[in-house]
Amino acid sequence: MPSGRARACGPARCDTDNSAACGLRPADLDETDRTLVRILQADGRTPVAELARTVGLSHAATRQRLNRLIQERIVAVGTMTHPGTHGLHRSAIVGIRCDSRTRSVAENVSKLDEAYYVVTGMGAYDLIVEVMARDDAHLIDLVASIRSITGVLSTDVTMIAETTKWVHAPDFTG
After folding, report:
1. Taking a C-beta distance cutoff of 8 angstroms, is the pair 34, 106 a contact?
2. Side-chain half-sphere of 97: how many Cα atoms within 13 Å?
3. Are 54 and 99 in contact (CB under 8 A)?
4. Contact 11/172 with Cβ under 8 angstroms?
5. 17: phi then psi, degrees, rounded to nearest 5
């Protein structure tokens, strides 16, 4: 089973109040930056020489831009695998209602290796979490561990029966 995460907030840019907590700020991208992002979203292994040819810059200038995009957390280049290849065959969305300790609950839920997406909600749930488990028994134990976190009032679990679309490269370059 995969463990650990590079960053709790990921590489995405946002201009919400949470962005400061994640060390993020709105990105100032020109057309060359947007082109580099689009190419890397399609294939993160694209050689710098090919990137440079496509955007019409030198290898050094392209490498400098790429390093800035990574350093400023506009992009993160890495490997993504489907959870099923790691034995995680049960996916669920867990809606969590909390008392006044929502941030503390979010931090504790984020520590769970099986929690892949943790966001604060503004509707029926204080937190919305995507979890992945090996099987039904593992999911039951995982939800029980979430319910045992101090500050959790209730949970609502929706099992995911079938994935129709799974995209981790939305077009943020427009």
Report:
1. no
2. 6
3. no
4. no
5. -60, -30
Q: What is the pTM of this model?
A: 0.65
Interhelix angle 31-42/59-71, nearest 10 degrees: 80
Residue 147: per-residue pLDDT = 98
CA–centroid distance for 4 within its chain: 13
Torsion sign across C-alpha atoms 84, 90, 91, 96: negative
**SS3 labels along the chain:** CCCCCCCCCCCCCCCCCHHHHCCCCCCCCCHHHHHHHHHHHHCCCCCHHHHHHHHCCCHHHHHHHHHHHHHCCCCCCCCCCCHHHHCCCEEEEEEEEECCCHHHHHHHHHCCCCEEEEEECCCCCCEEEEEEECCHHHHHHHHHHHHCCCCEEEEEEEEECCCCCCCCCCCCCC
Low-confidence residues in the chain, pLDDT < 70: 1-24, 80-81, 167-174
**In terms of Cα–Cα distance, which of 68, 18, 66 is closest to 45?**
66
